[in-house]
Amino acid sequence: MTKPRRAGVFSRAAGAVHRQVFRLPPGGAPYTVERGIPVPATDGARLLTDVYTPGGAARGTILIRTPYGRGLPESLFHGRAFAEQGYQVVVQSVRGTGGSTGEFRPMTQEAPDAQDAVAWLRTQPWFTGRLATIGGSYLGWTQWALLQAPPPELQASVVVAGPHDFARALRGNGSLALADFLRWSATMQAQREGGLRAILAARRRVAAALGERTPESVAAAALGTGAPWFGDWITHTDPDDPFWTDYDATPALAETRTPTLLVGGWHDVFVDQTLEQYEALAARDVDVAMTIGPWTHLDTAVKAARVTDPEALAWFDQHLGTAAPARDAPVRIRLTGTDTWRTLPSWPPKTGEQVLHLDATGMLTEEPAAAGTIPFTYDPADPTPTVGGRHMSAESGRRDNRKLELRDDVVTFTSAPLDAALEVIGAAHVELRLEVESTERAGIFVRLCDVDERGRSWNVTEAFTSATTAGHLTLRLGSCAHRFAAGHRIRLQISGGAYPRFARNAAQCRYTISCTDSRLALPVEPATPHHPDE
Questions:
Q1: What is the torsional sign of CA 280, 282, 287, 293?
Q2: pTM for this structure?
């Protein structure tokens, strides 16, 4: 533990640049930092904590609990930045990370440890009793863990791309979300072993290991005996298994009344959970607001901060202080396909429905198609690859799918060019009459794309599930807010997987799509004039 130290010249200069670039108020008040305070947990673990203290009376305390270390970017983006605005900021390394003692048990440890952190705050003479939380991704999960039994002092939360149900994220679609959580597990293990060099080496091992055929062999090659939790995630295949109880903070959605600002991205792996959080809290008349930008999961850490950090500060000023509400409406979304932000009174908005039918010629048509079938085969030795989309890697997000769509194991159905712009806002649904021949469970990956005048096929949203029998499959795609411009075409892409985003099918799978009774239903509203506001 270090003695409190005032911010130096470099820190003050960095703060000034940060405020300007990220559109924060002038601020710049002096502050001190005390690092490495050992906060006791109930079982004797010591959770190392840094405390940023403003020079004057604190406006409240902001708690941040992280497994990624207490330095950059958290120290700049939230520690220094909010301390300069008059808030006491407490940044804590969760157990087993950043020098905190105890075994790192991802997700499952956070509910009791968060309560211990708040109990410690209550003993501090500087604690005013006005508490807020903030953080993204795993730092968002630590908030949902706390919100299952929200402390009375908690007056505001800002959750950025933070899932409340990791069981669903890992296993909820019938297959293991392999690459995202393998890479994350390898990174967490490497972080404990040796910092950046170890992390880069771990990433190389993961890339090589993904050539293995089974999740077990992939994990062995990438992790060895490290990250033991990942083996548990492989073996517990049923998301309803009691094993997953501590990975699910859904009760928080029925329990908390804490004013909550939610932030997500249309290309974030957790965006549908963010939308679900808003709907659940709004239905209970909780003070909740939501901003969804055009971002990937990684974007929400830095790129999105120019939008979200000023919103977070305004949320704290309102709920820990006396500032007036800064939002024009509860919901603010970016309409992809444009540079337009739109405000809404709620989510989801009321929309109409446009139905397009699958045709055996590969068209999407407004009238029901004539009878016809289209077969394709998935080969686990050459699995259909992941191209862009909603996951956590640097390759996520909006990508041109043309090369992918040339593969024999990918089927597409495409509309005629649109006469007028069409806005799809909400969750599309696909109904497929499908025959599946396989000795094992078979994956189904469905994607909605926007085909521009040059023929480039840009992914908009998607869904994955598994099927074992023939029949009528109804699949809900992830929610989106997208404008298809006049002259563009709507494309539905269907395949047997997306590897390594999801574990590959264990056996060859033969699919036959019957175009009779197969259709795409889009939640649509007439396109409004395009007036960018940012």
A1: positive
A2: 0.95
